[in-house]
Structures are given as structure tokens and as C-alpha cells.
């Protein structure tokens, strides 16, 4: 660059005469005066924003504090801006510490942003106008942001949260298309869902597009009290994405395509093993042969196609694609911010011939500053979701789920392998899989169309004093259409080349269901926030009301032919017109937050709630809460000790206590009602519709209450690279419903006493998390984990009664104060019988028949009371809860980034719950196949044709067709119960972001490709091929599939 300042050019030396010195000084004074005047004018500056590794920071916000001009950095981290020469720039970007830089007349500025490892400035949204910095939070609140959610490629938003939130438990008990994990906070029950300030149900959360979520905060303790009557189980607060001020237009397109791979399903036995099990049963029992040696050998040798085992598992369960695409646009000016998004997901079913699930989401958030003091916003979101399956009796999935066992491996699905002619392949013809498709069974479609409109307004009355209003309208329309055909089964006659009908199902059904849900929500608040020296105050009072109606109509017809889709008055067999079922709730809220010097923090809140369910006088309840926090590390004595200041950078102690209301019981139970169209009588030759009384009315029912205590500590070490938190909680649940038993009413009345608020339970537990974030060279990495323990205990019971001390011991769960609510009782096993001789000499009568039904390999039970008989008196507590969420849940997370390559892995696990081995995994059902696992691990004859050949004692008893669940070897015992522990790979993703110097040439600011997987493997303490999350003890649930996706994300 040419230098015009000769005084700074080193190649020249000047000597000023003394006579000219005064002139020079005067000139400089004039020049400085000019500069001072010019400082009031704008200058054009340019600059670059980089991270501490010298990499460009794309999209960083650069705002001039005096001129209020702003911009964002481009793909190379550069920016240009017109500012005052004496202005100050504020540079910020998510995940980095905000910096202020004086312009000082410079034309070019380079700013280095340091990664924010402290995380204390992270904003936690708790609702009702409060978004707190994490440092000032006094409640037990877990949160996760959009960046982490983006790496979990789940069909549902709930699935994207799994393993990321301490104290929040998830369990996905089936993998049906569109299915989502069940969510509980600290095993307390279903939480309240808040989406952009509006109460919704879990279905609305599940069907959000995870790409539209900005943040998720979970209120686990009494901090949830401000949300009122439905918040006793905790609150999940969802905030969707919005545009930012002075944000340049940003366009993002992302998507993936992948495959769902069948897994985690116990495989059925092959034809030869199925026949071997039949032969063994006949040999043991001495019954006539149904399978000859010659026929059996043909199956063993697979002599032809007709003697080759048919693998029903591989035939029914197939790999299926799933795809997702989302496009969103965001940006903003000084006055208007916007975010628009459109996404679609398609998840085909893994059952052959089933279409599956698809959903289209739309999200639109627009915010406008009408004036500096008046702001408005409009949010519109909607979705259309559809489930599509063949029309099968009952639950459309049950028959095919059981199909691998109901259909025998010696049979095939179609006569002569012709798909037009279903064959009988199961002992019960209707279980045959060949007809379970659209052509032969009919069709079922379930479709939701949902739209929600939120309008918001905010007016700043005085500095810090604001009035806010929210109005929401939500409309959901559901339409179900089910057509079930009559069907035929065929046999093929090779000689005549004719397909003969061998059985017919004559029932035909056409069902129509239309349901509409309509909800109106309004929320009005007055808030005040200000800082006085070291005192900071934030307060809000408000009113919230919600009204909903939920009408439904249902019709069932029996059409004369499969091709007639209509229901007319001649075919109508059932019609139900559900009333609107109106529901109304309202509440008055108040909250006060105060902190002194960001060290001593207090929050007080309360809500006065009313519900339509209860009678006047018991309709309203007041539910207060309070919390305190003490940031020890902000004290001067801490900052004065270098070792403490440098090594323990965050120490906060907090506690909370509150009373939350629970809306219990059925609506209007204080009024005597009648069930219309219940029964009837024939009068004068005609049927007169009858009605029945719903039961006795009761005045003694109102809110249940949950008193929740939480004590927690937050820790940060080494500049908060290492963070940890621990919370202990105690929940006392009172006013639970029960009926009195000591007031007698005549049996002729036909109903029992109504329920009242009589009982109580309580829970104790803790949750903890630890997280380490650091950098080694060019590698950024994060390792974290969390664990939750929660267990329920029996509280007060209305006059508990027991006929004996044994009964008191046996039925303690749920009845004795201080005992666990969910302990499993069963017999206690003592190994297995090894021989006929051991059975003959066994001194205890185990089968109540002198042990004549026992066989080598059978389970042997302990006679706990020594009476020589195995019965209920020998049952003992042997396990934890079954079916529900385990007592202990944990998760581990790993993240790595290196020169554009990133890796993420989420592991989830649980322990302290009971798995009970049932059904096909326990015994050989006479009308079905048995599991290959059971056959391979069961006791067997050395020679299946010879009863005297001896036994090879296996892990399980003999698998005999004549032994069912009532056989004594299959009685409930710890022989069949396992205290389950597992660790599961929930999500894994590896991606690569192309260098900006490549993508910027084609107008792309960021381009990333990745491959991800879900449910890739599980480590568990049982060797059965089932998913440890499912609750179906026989393994017969729609399995959670392994998923592999290939995807992309592009920013323009």
C-alpha cells in the first residue's frame, strides 16, 4: 500500500528548523480539532471474527452500541459496517463469550471470540415471561438446545430428547411407525407439556418437527407449581425457533434417507426343530405319533421345496425405508423477525405389505416491533399425519406381530405360491398371514389434521413494566376409516390346476370415526424487571384460562359386499354420537424473583387454580412454592483465594419446596348421572332403550396434592470445563382416591361407594449429571453422563386390614406404610431336577399331586415355611417393578469435533426392574410354533424317539406341547424372573462439514454430510433376542428397529 505519510517513511530523515516548530504545533491542534468533529460522523469499517483457533466464525452478530447499526459475518468471518468513529462494537455468537471492542477510529478490526466453557450464561426458559441465565436458576431444571437435538435423527421430537436430560426417563416399548418413547420426570407420571407458552398433550410434543425446536427445559421440582393443576408430575417447556434482529436471510435445507432393519425379535424355531419338539412331546407322553421318522427325516434333509422350513420371521419382517426433509428460512431486520419451516417425514412399516406412517409439519413464527415499546407476534403451526395399514380385526398390528409363531414353519402363505390365493398356514385360519394385506383384508387409515394459531402482544408501560397477552386457538380433526373384508383360503389341486376354497371368513365391517378437538387458551400478564445497584427484581402476575370441546362420532356397518365402502341405514349396526365433553380450567398466577449481586437468589411463586371437575366450594385450590440459591463462588472470600477461584469456578447450593395440585377423579362426580342407551326392555312388543345410574354422587372429592422438596448443588471446575450437578428429591402425594369399605350398602343397589381423597404415597430419589468439555490440539470433545434413581413407597391407607400376619407380609406392596409400592413376589427356585430318581426322592410336594407331573429339567422350588408343600405361603419378594419405567435410569454422551469431522454417540441404560420371561419364551404353545431360543436351551431327550434314552439337562425345562403356563414348572418364580440391566446404543452419528473455502464459491455458507444410526446394539444381562425397553414379556411387540440414515444439511 502506498504510504502518504512521509513522516513515517523510514527512508527519509527531516530536520525541522525551530522557526517552523510553532507552525507545526498549530497545525496539529487544528488537525485534532477536525478529528474531534469528524468523530461525530460515521465511518465505514471492515473486520474479521475468528475463534481461538483462527477459524472464521460464520453468522456472528456485530452491533454498534451508539449508531445501533448491525450485521452478521459472512462465510469467511468478514463484516462491513457503517459506525461512528468513537463507537463500540458488540460481537456475539452462540457458544462463545460476547466481546465489546472500541472502534477508536480504526478502519479494520480483527476480533477473536473465546469459546464459552462456563455455560453459566446459558438461558433456561421456564415460561410465563421468565428466561433465566443458568447461573440464577434455583430450581431443579434440566435443559437442552437445538444444537444437540439436531444430532438425534428421530421420527418424533420426544425420541430426540432421549438420554440428554438428567431426571427425565424415557422408555420406547414398541417401534410401530410413528411411535414415540413414553416420557416421565423422575418416574412421577406423565408430565405437562408447554409449547410456546400453551399447554398441550404428549401427542403434540411427539409430532413436532425436532428441527423447529430451539430449546427444551424440564421443570422437575416445585418450580413447576406456577403451571398449576396438571404440573404435579413436572413440566416440559418447549420453545420453537424464531428469527433474530438484524439477521441476514438464512436458508437451511436438511434431510436424510435411511433403512429400518428388523431386529430384537425372538426367532421362531425351524420346521425340523418344531417337529422334533412335537415328536419329543409324543415320546414323553406315550401318545400316538403324528409325525413318522421318514417324514421327519425329509424335513431334516430338505429333500424338496415342500420339505424346506419356511422362515416366517424373515418373510413377515422386512427392511423398510424412511426419509425426512426440512427447509426453513429465518432472518430479521431492526423491526421484524421471522422463521418459516416446512418438513416431511415418511416411515414405511417393517411388516410386509404395511404402508406405515407419514407426517408433514409447518411452522411459522413472525415478530414485529410496532414501536420501541409495542411488540406483536403471530405463530402458526400445523401438521397432517397419517397411519395406513391393512384392515385387520382388532389391533391391526397384533396378528402380524404374532404371525411368526401363529404360522407354522411347515406351511407357506399362498396356495401354489400364488399371492392371489391365501393358504391356511396356522391352526386358527384367521391367524394365517397370507390374507393380511390390502387386497384380501381391506384397509385402515387414521389421519390427523392439526392447526394452531398463537397471537402475542407486549407493551412496555414504563421502563421495566410490561403487559403481555397470549391468545391461542388449536383445532385438531381426526378421521379414522376402517374396512375389514370377508376372506377366503385356498388349496391348490395340481392335477386339475384348480384353486379350491377350503375356508371362508364371512364377517365384513366398515367403521367411520370423526373426532374434533378444539381448545382456546388465553394468558394475560403484567411483569416488572429492574436492577437497583446490586439488587435485581423480576416479578409477574397474571391470569390464564383454557376451554376445550371434544366431540366424536362413530358408526359401524356391515356392508353386503367387500366393494361397498358405504354405511347406510340398512347396514348400520352401531352408532355413537359423543357430546362435546366441554372442559374449562383457569388460574391466577404470581411469581417474584430476586437476587442480590447474583449471589443470593430467591424465587416465590403461587397459583390459584380452578377446575370444572369439582363442585362449588372445592373447585379452587392455592398451590405455592419457594426456592433459594446461594452462589458461593461469587463471594469475595472465594475470589480472594487463587486456588479456589482458579479451580472451583462455580459452586451453587439451592433448595426448593412447594405444593402442587393434581386433578384427580372423573368430571362431575358430585352429580348423579345416567348412562343413556344402557340396557332396555321390551314393552308392547318393542324395545325401549334404558338408562342406568352412574353411581353414588360424592361431595368428598377435590384436588390431590403433591408436596415436593428438592435440595441440589451445581459445581463447575477448571474454568467450568468440568460441570456437575446433584439433586435429592422427596415427593409426598396426598389425597389419592380410594373407597371406604366399612360402610355397607345393599348389593341390590348395583354399585359400590364412590371414591374419596383418602390415601397417600411418597417417593424418594436423586438425579445427578457430570460433563467434561475440553480441547486437545484441534480436537474438541465432550464426555458426559447422568443417572436418576426414583422409587415409590406406600403412604397412608384407609384402615388397612389383613386376615393374617402372612397376608400382611404377602400383600404389603401397596398396603403397608413405608413399604415399596412395586415389589414383585414369587416362588424362590432352587435349581433344576436332574433325574427321575431325584424327583422320586424329593420330600416336598411341588405339584400338589405327589410330584407325578414333574420331569427332569423342571424348576425346583424352596419350601420356605417348611410345611412340605409348595404354595402361596412360599412366595417371597424377589424383584423390582415390572412393566413400567425402571427405578434406575442412566445415560452417557460423547461428542468429538476435528477439522470438520464430528462424531456423536448417546448411550442409554437402566437397571432395577424385573423382566418376566413369558409366552413363547417360556413354554411350547400347542397351537403355535415355539421359539428357537427356548428349544436350543431347553432340556431334551438324548433320543427324541426313545423315552428311556436319558436327558440332556438344559437351561430350561422340557419344551412339551402339553405343558402350558399352569404347569408347576412354569409357576411364577425367580427361575423365570430377571432383574434386568442394560446399556443401549441409542444414537450414533458421524459427519463431515466441507471447508468454507470450497462451499462459499457456490453461495453455500455451510454444507455437512453425515451417517447416523439408532438402536445399533444393546448390552444386557439376558441372552434373549428382545429389546430391553419393550414391556411385552413374551417379546411380542413391534420391535424397535435398527436404523441407518444418510443425510445432509446445507445453509445458504
Report on this model:
- This protein has a 22-stranded antiparallel barrel. The chain has a five-stranded mixed beta sheet with strand order 10-15-16-13-14. Strands 3-2-5-6 form a four-stranded antiparallel beta sheet, with no helix packed on it.
- The protein has 16 helices and 51 strands.
- Helix 5 runs antiparallel to helix 6.
- With 1052 residues, the protein is mainly beta.
- Among the domains are: 6-113, Immunoglobulin-like, CATH 2.60.40.10; 271-308 and 924-964, no CATH class; 813-827 and 875-922 and 965-1052, no CATH class.
Summarize this entry quickly.
With 1052 residues, this protein is mainly β. α5 packs antiparallel against α6.
Note the beta-strand portion: over 45%
Main structural class: mainly beta
How many strands, what sense, and barrel or not for the largest sheet?
A: 22 strands, antiparallel, barrel
- Provide a count of the helices: 16
Which regions have little confidence, pLDDT < 50, spanning 5+ residues?
1-40
Q: How would you state the average pLDDT, rounded? A: 89
Q: Provide the helix percentage.
A: 10-25%
**What is the CA-CA span between the terminal residues?**
34 Å
C-alpha geometry = globular
Q: How many strand elements? A: 51
Rg is: 35 Å
GO molecular function: siderophore uptake transmembrane transporter activity
Pfam families: CarbopepD_reg_2 (PF13715), Plug (PF07715)
Subcellular location: Cell outer membrane
InterPro entries: CarboxyPept-like_regulatory, Plug_dom, Plug_dom_sf, TonB-dep_OMP_SusC/RagA, TonB-dep_OMP_SusC/RagA_CS, TonB-dep_rcpt-like
